[in-house]
Amino acid sequence: MHCVQEARIRKTKWFFEDRAAFLAQLIKEVKSGVKSARKAQMNPCFRFNLTSDLPWHELSVITENPKLLFYDYTKDKKRMLRYLNGELPPNYYLTYSRSEETEDEEIHDLCNKGGNVAIVFRDHLPSEWQGIEVIDGDINDLRFLDGHGKIVGLKAKGLGKKDETGFVLEPCQI
Fold it and tell me: Contact, 111 vs 119, CB < 8 A?
C-alpha cells in the first residue's frame, strides 16, 4: 500500500505543478482504457478521485468525451447540489460522502432530491438507515448503477475499523 500512496502523491503533485502535461497523459490513459475495455467487450467508465476530491467536472477531459461515463464521490455539498440540479456534465455521476460533520438532515435532503450518500458502518450494513434503503457499496464501485435516493453502505476497512471520530457509524447509531 505504501507504493500506491506514494504514486498517488506524485500524481497529485504533478497535477498541480504541470497541469497541461498531467492532462495530456490522462487523456492518453483514458484513450488506452477505452481501447482495452472495448477489446474486452466491456463498457469503459472512469473514476479520477480516489483519495482526492478535485473538481474534475471543471476540466475538459469529461466534457470532451460525452460518450464516456465518469463518476466520483465528493464531500463537497455545493458540488453535489449542482450535480442534482443538472449543472454538471451529464456523463459525470456523483455520490455524496458522509463525513463526521454531516448532519442527518443533509443526508435526508440529498436523498430526497435523488442523490445517493455513502456512509461507512462499523460492523455490518443495515437494510435501511433512518428510513432510507441501504445498498451494499462493497459489491462493486459502479455507483452510477445504484439508482437514486439511496444510502451506499460501506463496511469500515483498514484504519476505519478503529475510527472514533464519528466518521464510521456504530451499530447503535443505525
Answer: no
